[in-house]
Design brief:
single chain, 19 helices, globular
């Protein structure tokens, strides 16, 4: 019967497609894949696809691999002229759904409908209803699934509609300040207490006072029932759409918060705004973007040593954007790795990475997430480190040659020492002036216990 006949029932068909996504069991990957493929196929049938989706791989906007491509001329630019009022309103109303797959479907729908362009003009008329949906009450009083949905939705709209959703607006500013406080209290960065509220730390867990850190579960129990990652294809575009796996709610909240901070860091005002001297947490109504900057940067660096790889990847992506976009325009691409070429001050960066380096000095505090975080730091800011880092790592490696003493000193779990040794050795290709450590590194490696000798060293 063709497209003209189908257009008469466009809203009804899209409603069925969205219902399929909402009804798909979250723990069954195949069901989720079939439902989302059906939804994307229906969307492509009615509205076509962006030119950029003709080939290659398409990642979600809230993904470490999402490419930032908004030039200043694109911000506020009109989307393609389209009038799909009923369909648009129907799908947009689900952007705050507590189900992760539904929110992803809405983001894909908006990108297809408006050809992957800015959403400033199309969301302007919906601004009041969107704010009512996203800012219904105080964030910390909302249930955890709603917190995730609210933060993730705002992160997407700040990225895709940077003009109408910006930190100059008081509601967004207050919301961001409240989120920063919740994250900072959970991480122990500030000592304020928020009574009767469950907060989530950088590892995706709710810290419990009085419970030793070592008694914390090593894995999220809900991970066993979460949907895995998959890819979908559609006959209406040639690209492959990558759908990320569903994460535990605690991890999802931290990842969503990081993507929100990444969207803020992508705005020129993030680097140019001045700091207004006031109480940073009590006088939120007087808060400015410049006051948010050091707290956001601190959280991004702190999240690099999270136990969750998804949190680490999101933090590295956000920091990479902040360092790249914050580079002075007069510096060449070769010089952008130098701390002096960044609008983020050297003092701020050093203050943020100091806690990580302090933990690195003590052998009792060495953990796999810490070593992984140092590795990401070396990738992002190699010029801020010198040979003393390599010397400290070698010092730790020498101590690990005495197996009995190191186990007694660290009280480590069986099998963890060999992984730590391997991860420390992997740091050397990233360390400045690494070539001077080759000979001594080979010697100390040969002295390691046999359980660690299976690691291949590339220096």
């Amino acid at each position: 019967m063709g497209l003209p006949w189908s257009k008469q029932f466009e809203v009804e068909v899209l409603h069925v497609a969205m219902f399929a996504v909402k009804d798909a069991p979250s723990e069954i990957t195949v069901a989720c894949k079939e439902a989302l493929t059906f939804f994307v196929t229906i969307t492509g049938f009615f509205f076509g696809s962006p030119a950029s989706w003709d080939s290659g791989t398409v990642y979600d906007t809230l993904s470490p691999k999402a490419v930032y491509n908004h030039s200043e001329s694109d911000i506020g630019a009109d989307s393609p002229a389209m009038n799909h009022g009923a369909s648009f309103t129907l799908i947009l109303s689900e952007i705050g759904s507590t189900k992760q797959l539904v929110r992803l479907a809405v983001r894909l729908f908006l990108r297809i409908l408006f050809r992957d362009s800015s959403l400033d003009s199309v969301l302007k008329d919906e601004l009041t209803s969107l704010k009512r949906l996203i800012f219904p009450r105080i964030l910390r009083n909302s249930p955890l699934p709603e917190q995730v949905a609210i933060v993730e939705s705002l992160a997407f709209m700040m990225d895709r509609a940077p003009t109408i959703f910006n930190t100059d607006e008081s509601t967004c500013l207050s919301f961001t300040a409240e989120l920063l406080k919740m994250v900072s209290v959970a991480d122990g960065d500030i000592s304020d207490t928020i009574s009767s509220v469950v907060l989530i730390d950088k590892n995706g867990f709710a810290p419990q006072h009085g419970v030793p850190q070592e008694r914390k579960p090593r894995v999220h129990t809900s991970s066993l029932l979460r949907r895995k990652s998959f890819q979908i294809r559609c006959e209406y575009f040639g690209a492959c759409v990558v759908v990320p796996e569903e994460l535990p709610l605690g991890v999802m909240l931290r990842v969503a918060a990081i993507y929100l901070f990444r969207s803020i860091a992508r705005k020129p005002a993030f680097f140019d705004a001045e700091i207004v001297r006031s109480n940073p947490w009590c006088q939120i109504k007087y808060y400015q973007v410049g006051n948010l900057r050091p707290h956001i940067v601190s959280i991004l660096f702190r999240s690099l040593i999270s136990e969750s790889e998804e949190v680490v990847n999101a933090s590295e992506s956000a920091l990479s954007d902040a360092l790249l976009l914050g580079a002075d325009s007069q510096d060449s691409a070769e010089d952008q790795s130098k701390p002096s070429s960044h609008k983020l001050s050297k003092d701020l960066i050093q203050a943020c990475i100091r806690p990580i380096l302090i933990d690195l000095k003590e052998i009792k505090k060495l953990t796999l997430p810490l070593i992984r975080g140092v590795s990401r730091l070396l990738v992002l800011l190699s010029s801020m480190f010198n040979k003393s880092l390599g010397e400290k790592i070698l010092e730790h490696l020498y101590k690990f040659t005495d197996t009995e003493k190191i186990i007694e000193l660290r009280a480590s779990k069986v099998g963890e020492e060999s992984k730590l040794i391997a991860s420390m050795i992997d740091l050397f290709p990233l360390i400045p002036q690494a070539s001077r450590f080759v000979e001594v590194l080979i010697k100390v490696t040969l002295r390691q216990p046999r359980t660690s000798m299976g690691h291949v060293i590339l220096v």
